[in-house]
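User: Hello! My lab partner asked me to get a predicted holo structure for this protein. The small molecule is NAP, SMILES included with the sequence. Please write out the structure tokens.
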Amino acid sequence: MIDRRRFLQNAAIAAAATVSAPLSAARRSDDSGSGATYEPDTLPANPEDAARYRPPYKLGAGTTQLGNIFKITPDAQAEAMLEAQWQTGVRYFDTSPWYGLGLSERRLGHFLDDKNPDDYVLSTKVGRLLIPDASVDSVGNWKGDLNFDYRYDYTAAGVRRSVEDSLQRLGVPKIDIVYIHDLAPSNTDFDDWREQLQIAIDGAMPELTRMREEGMIKAWGMGVNDIEPAVAALDAADPDVILQATEYSLVKHEDALDRLFPRVREKNASVVIGAPYNAGFLAGVDRWHYGGEMPEGVMAKRDRLRAVAKAHDVDLRTAALQFTAAPDVVSATIPGARNAEQARENAASMRASIPAAFWDELKSEGLIAESAPTPS
Ligand SMILES: NC(=O)c1ccc[n+]([C@@H]2O[C@H](COP(=O)([O-])OP(=O)(O)OC[C@H]3O[C@@H](n4cnc5c(N)ncnc54)[C@H](OP(=O)(O)O)[C@@H]3O)[C@@H](O)[C@H]2O)c1
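Assistant: Hello! Below are the structure tokens for the protein in complex with NAP.
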């Protein structure tokens, strides 16, 4: 990574570019045709002196699309999406054994194979071990051939094996952050999620702390779609980063603001925001999260948000993404992109400027919480 002096110089250049110049000022080179190339230090950065490990930059990439969530992402499109992420300066990638039952890790690892491991941050997850099984033809939202089934294991031995399996599948020499995946009340595989939580408190959590002390990983946390298990882990152990998905977005954030962020701040930890568009909803897709019904009122709320955005000439998806990165406790937001164009648009959104009057109006209309931090 870059030294401190260059980092500060680049941060100053990037800040100046954002305030006073069009996007092209932050470009470092042009690849003639398929989009400009940006250095990572043109993205919003985390403070270097944070008490606990944080990824250096506030934009990362989710990779459920590499696991064929909802529909098949062809190989060439997956590769082009990752190339575009890298080209636009994204250097943090989040995956999981669960995403396409190993496919997301395989595709991401193939892409990272020729990259210097010091140049990127990689997170994956533990809690499900993959079992070879050619007869499996449908699991969850994952499309296409799977070849694997899975079983849960939140024990110490289970999470260590899971990390080792992920390293083999990824084919890379390191994993930076490990999240305990989907140990949550909304996971319908569990009769009693609290039983699983206790197994993790006794097994996975102390083992991940040991792996951090051994230097095998830099940080660990929960990767969950509910707030309760994230708070439970902060109470029971010493996680560094909580990957909180679906609970902090432009349309849904009060609970995270009230119950999660203060606890995270107290523990000097940070939050990575998963599903910042509510699984595509705020990017314009008529889909809400990963199953179940569209909650009452969210379509009407999106319409009202769109109307305010239009009045201020603001792109709603851009506002939605920047909103998730604004709180001091947030160390990254990780939108998923289906293709190269979406990847480029997401990175451009983090470099765009939004007038303060837009955020003021969202507050005065009661569309976002009064206490919600907004981008400056
Ligand atoms: N429990 C957990 O740990 C957990 C849970 C959820 C998510 N996460 C993490 O969060 C990441 C992101 O979540 P996600 O991808 O499911 O949801 P998301 O980021 O909220 O939405 C991604 C979807 O939004 C649409 N989209 C993205 N960029 C767009 C653009 N520029 N223009 C138009 N549409 C755009 C695409 O929909 P289409 O594909 O329909 O085009 C894309 O698949 C995941 O990959 C994962 O890393 C973690």
